[in-house]
Every structure is written in C-alpha cells, then in structure tokens.
Amino acid sequence: MTDWFYPYPILYPGILLKRYKRFLADVELASGEIVTAHCPNTGPMTGVCTPGSAVQLSHSNNPKRKLPYTLELIQVNDNCEPTWVGVNTALPNKVVKSALEQHLFPELGNYSQVKGEVVYGQDRKSRVDFCLYPPENETHSSGLENRQIYLEVKNTTLCNGKLAIFPDTETTRGQKHLRELMALLPTSRAVMLYFINRGDCTEFAPGDTTDPVYGKLLRQAIALGLEVLPCRFKISPMGIHYLGLAQIRI
Prior knowledge:
Structural class: mainly beta
Strand order of the largest sheet: 1-16-15-13-10-9-8
C-alpha cells in the first residue's frame, strides 16, 4: 500500500478571532455566531495562528464537554497559495497508528505487531509512542532488520518556504526523547517520525534557530543510527492524504 486517506468528521468553517490561555480559541462561524472552541495544541503554534485566518472546527454532542467545538484546521498562505494545516496534536498519533497497522511506511520493513505507549528509557519512566515487533519466527534472528522498532511521532507545522521545521520552540521534552532513543541503539531500531501536518512542504530540517540543542542532538542521533521519517501529509477539510517522505536537510 503506497497511499492512505484519513477522513475527518463533519467540520464547520469559521474565522479565527483569537487564541488565548493555550487551550481556548474564539471563532466566528459562517453563520455569524461567535463560539469558544477547545484548542488541542499546547505549543505556540508559531506561524499558523494568525487572527483572521480561515479555520475548521469539529463538533461533539457529548453533554459533559464544556466546549463542544474543537479547533482542527487553520489555513495559511506561506507559499503563495492557501494551505490547510492540522493543529490538533492528538490526531497524528491516531493517524500513524492506523498507518502502521496497514504497513503504510515500507521504510520500516517487516513487523507483525504494533503496541502504543510502551514503557522505555533508562529510568523506565518514559513511554515511546509506538513499538513494532518482528514476526515471532524472526525474533531470535541475528539480522539487524529483525530488531524491535521504537518509534516516536512529532507533529510538525512550522515552515520556512517549502522547508518543514521541528521544533517551533525550545523543547526539553523533545531533547529527552532523542537522548532516550539514542540509548536504544544499536540493539534496537529507533525511528523519529515527523508528521508534517501540511501539504506545502517538500523538505525537512531541525529547528536550529528555535532550539539549537535539539538540532545538535538530532544530528548526533542520526550519526549513531537513528532513522528519520519526515512524512508529508496533505490536509483538507475532507481528510488527510499521505504524500510520501520529504527530503531531509541536515
């Protein structure tokens, strides 16, 4: 399988008025009604959170929710044409889980089982997003391709032209993840999957300006054998379409 499509639920168009207190966004719907939506993104959303931008909201009928609307997409114009950017950071892991179960990424090779939130790390207090296990009859093989695969997912929305950049701010948590993945090498395979949540970027690089420590650690990790998958996704109100890998600029 070389392609994949993730459908969104019904989305409601609007205009972003402001984002505040990290988790709140005021939006004017097409009807003229102004609602406060949940913003499921703890980061600064650098470059993609401009008031006046077109947005798309999902709606929940759960009566226990204080805010029935959720901010899902924001439209930007970084590369001379309108581009939708996915801003719900809870979604990439769901998409990647389904993609892994369908073996969407041939670069990962052969594996038979996918588990999420697996405990790992030197202090055993961290959880990797996914662990992929080789087929049982190959578990005891000495071949490098039959190692367990520890895979971390990073939502990526910042760009400079066609270049996708991660992170968009200093991330001590991201630095820790790199150090823990490096510690797994070479006994296991370690993979960093950058979920490029916009379709207008064709290249990827670490954010040396936003977090120079992260950039240095990523290069060290790659030298030790860390595998990097900068995965491009086209985003639209209809859904998410996999475009393949971006070119890595290190």
